[in-house]
Amino acid sequence: MMIRKTLLGLISFLAAMGFTPVTHAQDYPSKLIKLVVPFAPGGGTDIVARILGERLQAKWGQPVIVEHRGGAGGNIGAEAVFRAAPDGYTLLLTPPPPLVINKSLYAKLSYDPDAFVPVSLISASPNVLIVHPNVAAESVQQLIDVARTRLEPLNYASQGNGTTSHLTAEMFKSMAGVRLVHVPYKGTGPAITDLLGGQVDMMFAEISAVVPHIRSGKVRALAVGSDKRNSSLPNVPTVAEAIPGFLSMTSSNIVAPPGTPAAIVNKLSSAIAEIMRQPEVVKRLLDLSAVAIGSTPAELAQSMKMDSERWGTVIRVTGTTLD
What we know:
Blueprint (H helix, E strand, L loop, with lengths): L1 H15 L4 H7 L5 E5 L6 H17 L3 E5 L6 H8 L7 E5 L2 H9 L11 E15 L8 H10 L4 E5 L5 H13 L3 E5 L3 H9 L5 E5 H10 L3 E5 L24 E8 L5 H15 L2 H9 L3 E2 L4 H22 L5
Parallel strand pairs: 1-2, 1-3, 5-6, 5-7
Antiparallel strand pairs: 3-9, 4-7, 4-8, 4-9, 4-10
């Protein structure tokens, strides 16, 4: 009798402390899920988040919302998720910076990027080099020539300090040997708006966010950052054709707060993989020049490790710092 009371007391204590991962995983999800995107609306990650949110909501019958918490190169949104309850109801859906880049750029972060629990690499796409039509360049080499001969340096927009668009442009500066001035924004949307208006000259942007503007002639695409030409822009060369070794890709990834139970993570990952295999989702992403993936947690962890090494090298070579 005493043993039974002791066990019941221990179970009640663990339940009060939140140690019920099996039950939670079985019941999950039973309420609203929040996908936090740590950048302003309008970018490729935002579009992917909304597609995924729609499908998860349809699958599970629970509301899924996309919440934008931009600022500080993605650090504000990342910290919010880092400190959220590890119950699968608040997730970070983000491009690489908060997970693999910012730890090399900032002397101190208010969260530990390596402590997030990987869930899924959702999709991937190349960055594309675009210029305003007023820039007298039809190719990468012509852009380099313009940048070298202008009295005033060309300026470039980015999604914000430390983003892949920022580091890609810094890599371009270093490899091409040109002067460029950085103009950071709080996300892809605001950056593209000013590029369309001619307030900035050029940008390395997520291809999914700018293909419509390229096709309409509002901006000019000079090259894509992938190792091969992109099927959405088959006549646009790669940057590597002019600058050998140049590579710039971005991705949309989901991670959970530290301590999220493996059962919940695996349930999420499996659902996302299933959604990313749906023909209509594959087509919608292809129309955005992105490739649907839907990886396992282990595959995302490996991808993050490789991205960390690649962008860490760019940061060291270019001497880019933010603090």
